[in-house]
From TrEMBL:
EC number: 1.2.1.32
Listed name of the protein: 2-aminomuconic semialdehyde dehydrogenase
The keyword NAD appears for this protein: yes
Chain ranges of the Aldehyde dehydrogenase domain: 23-483
Gene Ontology CC terms: cytoplasm
Keywords: Cytoplasm, NAD, Oxidoreductase
Classification via PANTHER family: 2-AMINOMUCONIC SEMIALDEHYDE DEHYDROGENASE
UniProt source species: Anser cygnoides (Swan goose)
Length: 487
């Protein structure tokens, strides 16, 4: 298509060099609807070159001491932090999120991911046991796996990409990363800093392009023994099938349909603002976002009244406006998909209390073609409804009433997903009891999104396979060997 303005053109980063591609994909600014960037449409050839570069770099990188690797990673973290504002502006333009969110969440967390794994790699120990009667000592050793294939989604672009790159390279692997074709810019910006950080050529290679072409070429490459993937459950099924003939090591961080359970002894003045954030932060485009709120009947009316009143105060508009709470959704297609869920709920007889189709969206002149939507709250919706079963991944949340603890645990568990849950109650015994019974990889009580990266992150059921975190990522990105010595 013809483009009137000069576009940003990205290039793949292979063996320490930026390399142009023979074809490109348009990338949109979600808050204006304009094409502003061209992303390489890589395929087998580009993936092949990147894997070769990563393979070549592996012997030297894997034999460096953890401390040497750590120093380079810390330097990279410093360089990203130095350019934090530039990264935040770019992330917002590429993804649609507010600059405030990118500045306070995405980019600081990307920096922290690098620092965290640069530090944690220095402190792992291996195991040793003794069989004195047989004169044997056993110990384990851990070695990097090789070339790691890293595939990340569009919702938290640099945040989730560094969550994979950092542990992979800290453990001594080299990587070929493929960010989402819709949000590639900050990964490309990071590549520009690798040389200055002292990263040897070929340790970090980034290939841009679609999942079907570039992603699948990486998944099917015989010299990539490990894939760390964050994205949808549907794509994970395809990746599992395609990688099966190679018996690859897989870590799959997938979607969720996360419940919040609000008991009648909850502190509503903490619960309501946190549940608003957990429902609508980053336009509801966080895998950990709440989308089913179960409220105990005694406080149901009060909760709904206060929750809706607060949601109506959320401002939607230009992502660069510091007074705005919510920016644009990632794409036109995604916006249509999210809206279609609200329409389906209405057709089923549910009530839309605020947002889509109920309130009017007032956008600045420059954002009229952007992909915006108001925070939307649905009620009187059945547990079997697609809005209560499927991941919507937008600013839509359902509120329903419950009576007993037994009932709510069963209903909260009644979906195919099991990523995150939130429990609100001041009864200590109850929060422990309910947390134990929820089928969910993460349970937050009386808070949301408070993370200690030391601890496992990941989902149950259709929300994923494997966990990542200090120890878990170390285990995933290394192969363990048991060695027995007879003396
Ligand atoms: P997606 O599955 O469409 O794409 C994710 C990545 O996979 C992209 O880079 C895409 O290009 C690539 N891809 C697509 N098809 C592929 C294929 N056949 N082979 C290899 N790669 C392929 O997901 P998305 O729409 O980008 O992201 C949203 C989803 O991600 C939601 O379901 C969300 O819940 C999930 N998510 C999960 C977590 C988590 O940690 N559990 C975090 C963020 C997002």
């Amino acid at each position: 298509m013809a483009h009137s303005k000069a576009l940003l053109v990205l290039e793949n980063f292979i063996a320490g060099k930026f390399v142009p591609c023979s074809s490109y994909i348009d990338s949109y600014n979600p808050s204006t609807g304009d094409v502003y960037c061209r992303v390489p449409d890589s395929g087998k050839e580009e993936v092949e070159a990147a894997v070769r570069a990563a393979k070549d770099a592996f012997p030297v990188w894997s034999s460096k001491s953890p401390l040497e690797r750590s120093r380079i990673m810390n330097k990279l973290a410093d360089l990203i932090e130095h350019d934090l504002e530039e990264f935040a502006q770019a992330e917002s333009k590429d993804q649609g999120k507010t600059v405030t969110f990118a500045r306070t969440v995405d980019i600081p967390r990307a920096v922290y991911n690098l620092r965290f794994f640069a530090s944690s790699i220095l402190h792992h120990t291996t195991e040793c046991t003794e069989m004195a009667s047989l004169g044997c000592v056993h110990y384990t050793s851990r070695e990097p796996v090789g070339v790691a294939g890293l595939i990340s989604p569009w919702n938290l672009p640099l945040y989730l990409l560094t969550w994979k790159i950092a542990p992979a390279i800290a453990c001594g692997n080299t990587v070929v990363a493929k960010p989402s074709e819709m949000t590639s810019v900050t990964a490309w910006m990071m590549c520009k800093l690798l040389e200055k950080a002292g990263m040897p050529h070929g340790v970090v290679n980034v290939v841009f392009g679609t999942g079907a072409k570039a992603g699948e070429a990486l998944v099917c490459h015989p010299d990539v023994p490990l894939i760390s993937f964050t994205g949808s459950t549907l794509t994970a099924q395809r990746i599992t099938e395609k990688s099966a003939p190679h018996c690859k090591k897989l870590s799959l961080e997938l979607g969720g349909k996360n419940p919040a359970i609000v008991f009648d002894d909850a502190n509503l003045s903490q619960c309501i603002p946190t549940t608003l954030r957990s429902s609508f932060a980053n336009q509801g485009e966080i895998c950990l976002c709440t989308s089913r709120i179960f409220v105990q009947r005694g406080i149901y009316n009060e909760f709904v009244k206060r929750f809706v009143a607060e949601a109506k105060k959320w401002k939607v508009g230009s992502p660069s406006d510091p007074t705005v709470d919510m920016g644009a959704l990632i794409s036109k297609e995604h916006l249509e998909k999210v809206r279609s869920y609200v329409k389906k709920a209405q057709a089923e007889g549910a009530r839309i209390l605020c947002g889509e189709g109920v309130d009017s969206l007032d956008l600045p002149a420059g954002n009229q073609k952007g992909y915006f939507m108001l925070p939307t709250i649905i009620t009187e919706v059945k547990d079997e409804s697609c809005c209560m079963q499927e991941e919507i991944f937008g600013p839509v949340t359902c509120v329903v009433a419950f009576d007993t603890e037994e009932e709510v645990v069963k209903r909260a568990n009644g979906v195919k997903y099991g990523l995150a849950a939130t429990v609100w109650s001041s009864n200590v015994g109850r929060v422990h009891r309910v947390a134990r019974r929820l089928q969910s990889g993460l349970v937050w009580t009386n808070c949301w999104l408070v993370r200690d990266l030391n601890l496992p992150f990941g989902g149950m059921k259709a929300s994923g396979i494997g966990r990542e975190g200090a120890k878990d990522s170390y285990e995933f990105f290394t192969e363990v060997k048991t060695i027995t010595i007879k003396h």
